[in-house]
Amino acid sequence: MLCKDHDEYQFEGMIMNQPTARKHYHDIDGARSLLMFLSVALHAGTVYAPSRPMITTNTARHEFFDWLISGFHLFVTPTFFFVGGFFSVLLLSRRSVGDFLMNRALRTVVPLVSIALTLNMVELYLRYIDTGGALSFIGWIGSPAFIADWASGKWQLHLWFLVSLVPMFMLAAFVQAVVPDKSPVRTLSVGMSDKFGGWIGGSAVFVLVLLGLAAANTANYAVASAVPGSHELIFPGFQTWYKLIAEFPFFVIGVMAALSPTFLANLCKWRAWMPLAAAAALILQPYPENGQSFVTAAAMLFANQLAIWTLVLFILQFFHRYFSAGGKKTAWLADCALSMYLFHHCLVYIFGRTFVGVDWPVWLEFLAVTAASAITVIMVHEYVIRRFAVARLLFNGKTDIRQIRATKQPSSDAMSTSVPPVAQITVS
């Protein structure tokens, strides 16, 4: 099955466990990578947002940063979940279930655990000190405050996204294992995705799809809220059922996009009005608020989900239109993205803490914290992660040090295998 013109995606044999054309998805990889870098600005904004007084003891604040982080939250993480679903299908089409799980453990679980036990513990200890804690770092480990951080799930900090992806990967593997390749269920899933993809080619229908996706998300939230105990941790240290369910629709749409080339092509088809719609969503930032009536809150939740889907799909369309060619810069960005995601959070806190006693304009401090954090991660990535096999494995889940040394240029093991580069660097 191979068709579509030069401006659209080309797939071959997209049925699970059948050979597929080797293709690098530079546009989706570029979108994911850039959003990883934007996460630095997002979290640097929390240092100066009036609504986040618990982030360091820095008292320099401005309302703009509330707007900034609220806007970023609309599209950054949902896009990551779409990418996670999309490349789960592609990986399962090229690997056995066991290989898939091993790959996901290597790319996701190993870096997750490595950062959780190192930099996240440093940040949590600094937060403990900033709120009046008096114990030494060694004394803090095993203390009631330490146990509370782990039991409540606070240990995750920004890693909650990777924690959420793990059960989704396991679900994808389970479905792949129990549903035969040529079963009616699998054929129906592919057929429905393909048929749905054919419907959304026109702008009018695409608008209806946006409204439908927003309505589905709203209903998903409503159902999740109605489940008894949905806001309680599934087990200590993990996450709530509500949080897992809230992000799942983006993963599902990513799966559908991987199953159907038509669906992905029309989903990423450039529409001239989408930049205006995305700009409106980013400027207005509809969110439900406490104290609103049920009807108003429901309407605002629907508007919020509509804004999210508009921004996510605009990002996919934008990168498909302008960044499909790839290149060395895109490859480097992709290789550094996971390091940026993992390391920046603690660095933002440290640099934000450093500027507590500095009387600079808040805008300048924000730019300094963002730049210092990003540059530090880049230096660590280039001079540690890409040079030492143990660091590469623990914090990037990769074993390609020999290839890096041989080529002496930005690379990932994805560049020498059939697995798309974005699937090699698990995110978000």
Could you explain how this protein is built, in words?
It is built from 18 helices and no strands. Helix content is 68%, strand content 0%. The protein has 428 residues and is mainly alpha-helical. It has one domain.
Write the layout of secondary structure elements.
Layout: H1 26-47, H2 63-94, H3 97-116, H4 119-130, H5 137-140, H6 144-151, H7 160-178, H8 184-199, H9 203-226, H10 241-259, H11 261-267, H12 274-284, H13 294-322, H14 328-354, H15 362-385, H16 389-396, H17 401-407, H18 421-424
Outline:
With 428 residues, the chain is an all-alpha fold. The chain has 18 helices and no strands.
Distance between the termini: 29 Å
The gross shape turns out to be globular
Indicate how many domains the architecture comprises: 1
Largest sheet properties: none
List SSEs in N-to-C order: HHHHHHHHHHHHHHHHHH
> How much beta, percentage-wise?
under 5%
Q: Helix proportion of residues, in percent?
A: 55-70%
Q: What is the rounded Rg?
A: 22 Å
Total number of strands: 0
**Tally of separate helices:** 18
For this entry, give a set of tags.
single chain, 428 residues, mainly alpha, 18 helices, 68% helix, globular, disordered N terminus, disordered C terminus
